[in-house]
Amino acid sequence: MNREPNIIRIRQRNYSIARILFYKHIENKHRLVFDNLYLQNYKIKLKDKLLLIYYKCLCKIAPEFRAYLKYWKPILNRAYYQKRISWKNLIIWHKLKKVNTERYSPYAA
To answer: pTM higher than 0.85, yes or no?
Structure first.
């Protein structure tokens, strides 16, 4: 399975604060789902099913959220440490600093 063209397409996209905030929201829901609901012997309740449906819809809207965050995180890191960052990007940098882009990566089907 070749994922390379998808990552190239993501890297060519322009930077958007709104997109990063939306993808950060998806990543937070992703963390909730995989850290809390995928435990052994966990009974999924009705509220958990609603969260899973919501998460599935978010992933259909933006399945490449992890690759996008992974691409922009080091760029904002460099800009922050070189003091070439605006106050909007500083807020985004603080949010992205906590994102783990390595674990539980959803695969495109």
So the answer is: no
